[in-house]
């Protein structure tokens, strides 16, 4: 497993803005990933992962009338260990509220969106991988198209949820695709570790990108760090720049 913090790469170039393979990724249409009438199920390890990874695709699917189901595995309340400003108790309430506002900013139909919250403890998901897979499987059905994080993304929670999601989808006969997040911020020298042959681009127009960026900024607790205790922003400037690209990349 590759583990990397964005701060380790500054000011070096990162995969997302420097790898030549980015320009050669084939474009894929939404209909090729999601057959007509299929239900889209997005599984997020932490609140906000669904917006940062595929906030544009969620908008496209909603516009095409696909039924949507979001599964949030954790509530993200352990994201600021040692913080007085963002205690676990405060975050357990605040982060779900941020997610509601973010999804509203995406323009998703909140009245019909099916949203399941797992309540598993973040930063400790690997210890409950089997339980998480069983939990996910209860909410899937044959013919679903499932999206989650990548199994080699460099973040333990992301990789755990990806493995659990893949297993659950396989058990019920659903399709499964992965969406990288932190791997885009690896140093360029590590681009050989990325499965370029599986990557496909989903094009996004200007308004879709703008709504995605606006939605990401709903996560106020993640935008500012806490220097006094050595906590960097969980949504750093580099990531906020990257999500303004006019496409999202899915591994098929």
Provide a descriptive summary of the structure in words.
It is a single chain. By secondary structure, the protein is of the alpha/beta class. The protein has a single domain (6-20, 27-251), classed as 3-Layer(aba) Sandwich (Rossmann fold). The chain has helices spanning 15-18, 30-33, 49-63, 88-106, 129-137, 156-172, 206-216, 220-223, 237-242; strands spanning 26-27, 40-44, 68-74, 114-120, 145-149, 175-179, 199-203, 247-251. The strands form 2 sheets. The chain has a 5-stranded parallel beta sheet with strand order 4-3-2-5-6, sandwiched between helices. α3 runs antiparallel to α7. 38% of the residues are buried.
What attributes characterize this protein structure?
single chain; 252 residues; alpha/beta; Rossmann fold; five-stranded parallel beta sheet; 9 helices; disordered N terminus
Short description, anyone?
This protein has 252 residues and is an alpha/beta fold.
Itemize the secondary structure elements and their pairings.
Blueprint: H1 15-18, E1 26-27, H2 30-33, E2 40-44, H3 49-63, E3 68-74, H4 88-106, E4 114-120, H5 129-137, E5 145-149, H6 156-172, E6 175-179, E7 199-203, H7 206-216, H8 220-223, H9 237-242, E8 247-251
Parallel strand pairs: 1-7, 2-3, 2-5, 3-4, 5-6
Antiparallel strand pairs: 7-8
